[in-house]
Structure formats: C-alpha cells, structure tokens
C-alpha cells in the first residue's frame, strides 16, 4: 500500500516537473545580469524594475571600453544587458554576431527615442537592429576654473591646450592632472587637437599624438580609471582631468553638495570634441533575453529616463523625458549640448585590428612615460 502510494506520488511529481520549466531556466528568468558603466544609473530605476517585474537585477560595472571588450571578447559573459559605446565597441560586437537582434515587438517604448538620434547611430548599426540608445555625451576637460586661472592666467579655458601644451601642463601639475585610462576614448581627442584625422590609421598621425602625450607625461599625476577620476575630482584632487562630460558634471554636483569650496567646470574643447552614444544591447548568448527586453522597454519610459538623466547628468534620447528633467540639468549646455556645440563635435568609427593594436602600444608607452 505504502509502496503504491509512493509510486503514485513520484509519478505525479514527475508529471508536474514535466509541465514546469527546468529549474535552472526558471532561475535564469528571475535574474537579470546587467553590465553597465559605473555611476551611470538611477538606483531607484533598478529598484522599481525589480519590484514591478519580480526579476532580481545583478548589477556589475566597468569604467572603460577596454575592460568591457576584455569581458565580452571570449563570449559566455553571462550578461543579459551590456552598454557598449556605439563606436567602436558596439559596432564591432554587432558585426561579429555577438549581439541578439532586438525584438521590437517586446519593446513597445521603442518609438520614444528621437528619430534623428537613432538615424545618427545607424552608421554603427544599419536599421538599428541591435541597440537602443541609453545616454550620450562628449569627451573633454573637467577643470577647477579658479585654480587654473590662478596658476596659468593666460591659458585658454575652452581649449585642450590647457592640458596638451607642456607649458600649461607644467604650471598645473602641482594642482593635479589626470587622464582617463583608455586608448580608445582618449587618442581620437588628442589626434583632433593635433589637427590630424581623429580616426586615423596612419602611423605618422599616431606618432604625433604619442609624442604630444609623452611631452606632457611628466606633468600628469594619474592615468587611471574614469570612475576614480570622478571620485577624486569631487574631492578637489585634480585641477584638470580628461574625462567624460557627465562624469565632470556629476563631480561638480557632488562637490557643490559637499560645500567645501571646490568648484568644477566642464570644457568641451573648441578644437572639436568626440561625441559618443552608449547603447543598450543584449549579448547573443544572454541567459535571460526575455527579461533583457523588458528592462530595455522599462528604461525607455520617459519618467524612468528623466530620473536617470537627473541622477547621472548625461542626456538621453527619449524626447518626452526632456520636460521631466530638472530645469538646471535640462538647460545646462554641457549636458544637453546646443546645436552650435554639436556642430563642433566629431564621431569615430572602428579601426582596423592592426591600427587598434598600434593605438594600444602607443597608449602603453604614454603610461610608461617612454
Ligand atoms: C559613466 C561614463 C560613461 C560614458 N561614468 C562613457 N561612454
């Protein structure tokens, strides 16, 4: 009798198990593995998505494209959402088949994105098949205007000369100069400043950029992660730092809150600033593509995007979010660039592999100082 009962219940359990998803799969559907830039989301957005969807977010951060590429190059990263910059990383991943084509049927908020900006990123992703626009910005200088004026009164406050002319760098060295540790995101800006093609694969051009960097190297205190530059800037540790626009403005906001007399400004170099777009994308082997689509759709809600921009000080591409963004953020031309400022930006494209390696070697020589 007991044996028969046991057999029956085992049978029922087996039947039940057959009708339910595999336990590992069910587990995967309950978590979403997100790999995003540091200091790049509103914590409330993460909490709200978790609460609404019942999906738990496991959130990891990176602070350079080199780190992101290193993590993704081998495949099987385990991530469901990654946020590569349109050029070069996102374009490269899309071309290599490393990303899942987005199913727009699962992203009803897709149409919230500004069509003009979507068109602009189509050069990296024809048909916008693999990515939604998360945030965008420029690369330039975070500065402490009062200190710079005191130490180098004749130096221009709107130009990369502030960093790249050795006589300026020498005078500002004691006050702290930092450059973010990314060949991919720094060398185009230096090439542009030197009057070269910012997207050059030409060894002679790269040589010019490298020589210019080596000339200021003795005056540079730190070539380090963009995330640690943000923290140090907010504490007043640097007078000039080459970094991402919104990071400078986040540091400005934090320094103001701390009320210790540290004033920080952002300079979009007049020589031309690199404009970039960070894309929400799903790795081809993502464990939870369903959840990833739901998360992208959630982020494209105007009120969610407005909250993110308010928090991280980068503009987004959701048109209806703009009126919900705080006035001081919305009206800051260093966050939402004016048409004139946009006209003075440039974009890059992925380099051939051999040129990308040469950039890496130049960068290592800059870091080593020889
Ligand atoms: C966030 C930096 C993200 C901008 N800290 C780089 N695309």
Description:
The protein is of the alpha/beta class and 370 residues long. It folds into two domains: 173 residues, Periplasmic binding protein-like II (D-Maltodextrin-Binding Protein, domain 2), CATH 3.40.190; 159 residues, 3-Layer(aba) Sandwich (D-Maltodextrin-Binding Protein, domain 2). It contains 18 helices and ten strands. The strands form two sheets. Strands 4, 5, 6, 7, 8, 9 and 10 form a seven-stranded mixed beta sheet that branches. The radius of gyration is 23 Å and the shape is globular. Bound molecules: pentane-1,5-diamine. The site of pentane-1,5-diamine (N2P) has 11 residues, from strand 9. Pentane-1,5-diamine binds next to strand 9.
